[in-house]
């Protein structure tokens, strides 16, 4: 079962109430507590961040506690975010039985503090009201979004159960407690695989728990090349991390 709220287009009260009705149905779908207080909290998040996030729910009605995937796609821009999502995130995670959240502030140049705040606010809302398992919150970053994800992990190393980064110029200066899955193209013209391999060795020497996957792809700018490998993170999470 798949639900989507791309509410970065909402800009008036009528659309807010439409979104609220959808959110109410979602809370029932994933078996969230249906009290008025929880409904109000969901509405409060939307009211505060109206037009500033994309939300998809793939959880079935039988799920009691579900994972949350927070996606930082890099600076793709509002117009290209949908293409990015449809080419990589949706096909890779549609069977993950969870919630997929992406703050639109991460789609362009932004304040790191504001990005961190909306993510924290949604985690609080989702764990309280949308049956999200606080032990199954995963941060996903692509390209520049991967670097932003690493910076977020530094300040919130116990918040996320795992970090997944793709197509990035990653480097871990210090040990992170959060398990990491690095997915890197072997022919990425922007970020050479040789450098990635060295950085993996360095991160492991610092004590990082890293799964490293090399993808046979030629283009850094083709997210669809990473579908299979991002999807492979699901059994890694289920069998090793959770």
From TrEMBL:
Residues 111-234 form the Phospholipase/carboxylesterase/thioesterase domain. It comes from Aquimarina hainanensis. Residues 1-32 form the signal peptide. Keywords: Hydrolase, Signal. GO terms for molecular function: hydrolase activity. Pfam families: Abhydrolase_2. This is Dienelactone hydrolase family protein. Gene3D superfamilies: alpha/beta hydrolase. InterPro entries: AB_hydrolase_fold, PLipase/COase/thioEstase.
């Amino acid at each position: 079962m798949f639900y989507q709220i791309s509410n970065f287009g909402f800009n008036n009260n009528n659309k807010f109430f439409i979104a609220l009705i959808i959110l109410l149905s979602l809370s029932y779908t994933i078996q969230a507590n249906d009290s008025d207080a929880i409904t109000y909290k969901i509405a409060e998040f939307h009211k505060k961040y109206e037009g500033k996030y994309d939300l998809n729910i793939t959880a079935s009605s039988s799920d009691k506690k579900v994972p949350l995937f927070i996606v930082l796609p890099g600076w793709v821009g509002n117009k290209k975010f949908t293409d990015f999502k449809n080419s990589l995130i949706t096909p890779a995670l549609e069977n993950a039985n969870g919630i997929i959240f992406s703050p639109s502030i991460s789609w362009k140049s932004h304040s790191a503090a504001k990005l961190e705040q909306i993510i924290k606010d949604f985690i609080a809302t989702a764990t309280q009201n949308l049956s999200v398992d606080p032990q199954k919150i995963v941060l996903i970053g692509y390209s520049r979004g991967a670097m932003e994800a690493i910076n977020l992990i530094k300040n919130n190393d116990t918040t996320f159960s795992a970090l997944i980064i793709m197509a990035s110029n990653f480097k871990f200066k210090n040990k992170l407690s959060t398990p990491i899955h690095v997915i890197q193209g072997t022919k990425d013209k922007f970020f050479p695989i040789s450098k990635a391999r060295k950085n993996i060795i360095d991160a492991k020497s610092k004590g990082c728990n890293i799964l490293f996957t090399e993808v046979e792809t030629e283009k850094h700018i083709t997210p669809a090349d990473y579908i299979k490998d991002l999807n492979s993170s699901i059994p890694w999470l289920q069998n090793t991390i959770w």
